[in-house]
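Predicting holo structure, flavin mononucleotide bound.
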Amino acid sequence: MTFEKLGYPIWWGIAAWPVDGFISANDFTGKTVIPFCTSSSSGLGQSGELLRDAAGTGDWLEGQRFQSRADEDTVKEWVASLEL
Ligand SMILES: Cc1cc2nc3c(=O)[nH]c(=O)nc-3n(C[C@H](O)[C@H](O)[C@H](O)COP(=O)(O)O)c2cc1C
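Done. Tokens:
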């Protein structure tokens, strides 16, 4: 089992649409996917579930939202907290 972190900005409440091409072009079979996003104010919302449904493969976990311009250390701390 491999773990993949999938990051994207929130656009109009969901994952920025350029991410859709990445999702449709990849097979997530055998992977655990952990979505994370940045946004000005919106939460993660349903963005993770929508990407999971679009992917159709992979084991998608609950994601994490960060404030836009979150610094690298903040994201690294989150990744470390996952204890993957
Ligand atoms: C087209 C577009 C739509 C956006 N829609 C939202 C939104 O619905 N909610 C929100 O909180 N931020 C929204 N934003 C802000 C982005 O999520 C934010 O700029 C992005 O997370 C970039 O963060 P960064 O500066 O850390 O790269 C939008 C930005 C753009 C360009």
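Residues 9-13, 38-42, 68-69 surround flavin mononucleotide (CB under 6 Å).
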